[in-house]
Amino acid sequence: MAPLPDPRWRHAVVTGGAGFVGSHLCAALLAQGTDVTCLDDFSTGLPDNTADLHDHPGFTLRRVDVSRPFTVDRPPDLVLHLASPASPADYLRLPLHTLDAGSLGTRNALELARRSGARFVLASTSEVYGDPHEHPQSEAYWGNVNPVGPRSVYDEAKRFGEALTTAHSAAHGTDTCIVRLFNTYGPGMRGHDGRAVPTFVRQALDGEPLTVTGDGRQSRSLCYVDDTVAGILAAAAHGMRGPVNIGNPDEITMLDLARRIIELTGSASQIRFIARPVDDPAVRCPDITLARGKLQWEPRTDMADGLRRTIAWFRARNNSPDRRSAP
Ligand code: NAD
């Protein structure tokens, strides 16, 4: 589904725009005629991720830690706040940075939107549902999160970010929207970021065993990045406040995902079972009734197709040499 062009968006600020999802979002905005200022501290992203955009006259890339006060040269009409470590390997390595990005970073991005009269979109996460007692998860479910477990630095930062966004709108009338993104995959991920798809693809291409945690029966629902970006832009264009789930309800167990990737890469790799991380959710699947009904959005990319494109990207880049987040 092509993102809805919105003539009101002459200039968007994307925090975390040099990350995996952010770089695709910057490209989609530029493609529809919106100038983009990308603010990123490169804590988990890379300037390389936006290399294709650097020559675009509408694109500006600035190294900024959004958890500290910042200004931009030109007021935006859209602020998309994605800045935050997102993979468990990253947020466990950067716990305080992650809490700051969800709290101070969200506050600073909200202030920018208020000062500029811009629409604000918070990239929240399915992790606000924790290890859910409801399945699939609808926006009405409040979640089951351990506030002092190792994952809490991410889950609670995002929950606080949602509360802050809601309060900012109530207190100042800021035009806000919360999108809850579910697991997203695609070209541009780092092979060592610890998330299942890039880990399995890298291992399969290297001929290493694919490390499946626990017994592999835990499920995730994986959304191809183009679909996630289209969902974020549809929510931004709609004017809704959310929260709204953006994800693919096509659920798969981690063991099946590993087998699928072995098959699609033609790898001779075996599967090796390793310990499951603390508080790892057993199931994860979005109820996207709201997004379907209000945004006329739903994911379009079939998993085999999305995985093929991701594998091709890893192959073309010689299997993602970035090893910054090696566990
Ligand atoms: P990513 O790590 O690839 O990108 C995050 C980007 O934010 C990086 O470029 C990083 O350098 C930047 N960043 C982090 N802290 C910052 C700070 N204080 N100031 C400026 N920049 C900062 O992660 P991603 O997968 O692209 O995720 C992007 C956003 O989407 C995150 O907010 C994440 O919580 C959310 N999200 C992603 C997924 C997913 O499956 N990818 C799922 C749910 C939610």
Automatic annotation (TrEMBL):
UniProt keyword terms in alphabetical order: Decarboxylase, Lyase, NAD
Cited InterPro entries: Epimerase_deHydtase, NAD(P)-bd_dom_sf, UXS-like
NAD-dependent epimerase/dehydratase domain span: 13-247
Domain of life per record: Bacteria
Cofactor: NAD(+)
Official protein name in the record: NAD-dependent epimerase/dehydratase family protein
